[in-house]
Write a structure and sequence with these properties.
Length: 210
């Protein structure tokens, strides 16, 4: 309920001030869409199965649940990665350079994120990787057990882990460390404020970065 209400509030606010949205804020809207999509398509089945102490439905509903989880999960992860990269670029570029990140650019990036997520989600349906029940039997996801007993499952899980989890996570960490370093350097410069001719401008920039 909180997931649906919270993300619905984000989408309602974005719709109300659509013309005023800055291009990076479209990624926040996309993250809300992915999260609310996950809540609506997965949570009812997961909650009902948990109360039932067993998965409700057959193989078809299991594949559907796993597909939705993978699609929206990868989309959320890649959106967070894109947000981190754009924040890093804006932080480390001049105002004129940061203005180059237009709404069209972000829309193309969002389209790429969804296509990338959809590609990974449908790969198990076309023969690379598998979907199946989780160990506790009340939800479905990637068949992790295939990592040990199938070369097909092994290659898929390893590739997915590297390209959909490790690489985005490392990118996010690197970007926010870069932003933190920028803040640290700006703070050091403010300590020597008497020697800075544009101290007010620097302080405003530091506030925006923070």
């Amino acid at each position: 309920i909180l997931t649906i209400l919270g993300n619905s509030a984000v989408l309602a606010t974005a719709a109300k001030r659509c013309s005023l949205l800055k291009s990076p804020e479209l990624l926040t809207v996309n993250l809300a869409v992915a999260d609310i999509g996950m809540a609506l398509s997965m949570y009812p089945l997961a909650i009902a199965s948990a109360w039932n102490h067993a998965w409700l439905g057959g193989e078809a509903s299991c594949v559907y649940y796993a597909l939705m989880g993978f699609l929206f999960g990868v989309c959320s992860m890649m959106t967070l990665c894109a947000m981190a990269v754009i924040r890093f670029l804006v932080t480390n570029s001049s105002k004129s350079s940061s203005n180059k990140i237009t709404k069209n650019t972000v829309c193309i990036l969002i389209a790429f994120i969804w296509l990338y997520s959809l590609l990974w989600a449908i790969l198990p349906l076309v023969g690379w990787g598998y979907y199946g029940p989780e160990p506790f039997g009340i939800s479905c996801t990637i068949a992790w057990s295939k990592f040990h007993n199938s070369s097909n499952g092994f290659s898929f899980i390893l590739s997915m882990f590297l390209l959909c989890t490790v690489l985005p996570a490392l990118t996010i960490v690197a970007c926010y460390l870069g932003i933190a370093w920028k803040v640290h350097k700006a703070y050091q410069e403010i300590q020597n404020i008497d020697r800075i001719p544009n101290a007010a401008k620097l302080e405003k920039k530091l506030t925006l970065v923070s």
